[in-house]
Amino acid sequence: MKKRERIVRYSAPERINHWIVAFCFVFAALSGLGFFFPSFNWLMNVLGTPQLARILHPFVGVIMFAAFLIMFFRYWKHNLIDREDIIWAKNIHKIAQNEEVGDTGRYNFGQKCVFWAAIFSLLLLLASGIVIWRPWFAGAFPIPLIRLALMAHSFAAVGLIIVIMIHIYAALWVKGTITAMVEGWVTSAWAKKHHPRWYRAVAQQSRPKQQEKRP
């Protein structure tokens, strides 16, 4: 494939940031499930031993939150809801049939929902996690609040797992999405089909650079 047919979707730092979040999520989610369900206790071994998992789990969660916060400040403007998203949502039946609807920007309505659901879940996980974090912070809070925080932490964790499962399914469903996050590029045809408004913006930015290169 000619290089001019490729468009940079994510830079190397963006991809590294994404995969840090992804790996932290896997370790935190698996060890968390091990804490929550006795039959899944063996999952705590993902962080070495059950004892080590209890120590490392909250630290992994904090790293995940910090890495996602970088992503938040980088992408939040691209995830604001606009009129085209309403059109996309109203035609979800066409989306389910692999048809593209509306003049989509860098992210479609489904991706935006995943983005905001993830940040909400992570904020709740961080706040509740601090309350239940022994031996560092839990001692400063009353038992009723700790119990409430445990419940909130559990619900937020399940919610985030569901959100990430949807995210992974969508990435596998739309061919070319995985390549964007692994290698950083997409084809012009992919961009035109799935994110036409973003494609036009990128093409417009590249024209002055191409003109400068001409003798």
From TrEMBL:
The UniProt entry lists the main location of this chain as membrane
Listed under GO cellular component are: formate dehydrogenase complex; plasma membrane
Keyword annotations: Cell membrane, Electron transport, Heme, Iron, Membrane, Metal-binding, Transmembrane, Transmembrane helix, Transport
The UniProt transmembrane annotation reads: 20-43, 55-76, 113-133, 145-172
What domain of life does the native source organism fall in?
Answer: Bacteria
Annotated Cytochrome b561 bacterial/Ni-hydrogenase domain residues: 9-184
Under the heading Gene3D superfamilies, the entry gives: Transmembrane di-heme cytochromes, Chain C (1.20.950.20)
InterPro entries per record: Cyt_b561_bac/Ni-Hgenase, Di-haem_cyt_TM, FDH_cytochrome_b556_subunit, Formate_DH_gsu
What membrane topology does this protein have?
A: Multi-pass membrane protein
GTP-binding listed as a keyword? no
Provide the cofactor list for this protein.
heme
Q: Which GO terms describe its molecular function?
A: electron transfer activity; formate dehydrogenase (NAD+) activity; formate dehydrogenase (quinone) activity; metal ion binding
Which GO terms are recorded in the biological process aspect for this UniProt protein? anaerobic respiration; formate oxidation; respiratory electron transport chain
**Where located?**
Cell membrane
Family per record: Belongs to the formate dehydrogenase gamma subunit family.
Protein name in UniProt: Formate dehydrogenase O gamma subunit
| UniProt source species | Paramixta manurensis
Taxonomic lineage of this organism? Answer: Bacteria, Pseudomonadati, Pseudomonadota, Gammaproteobacteria, Enterobacterales
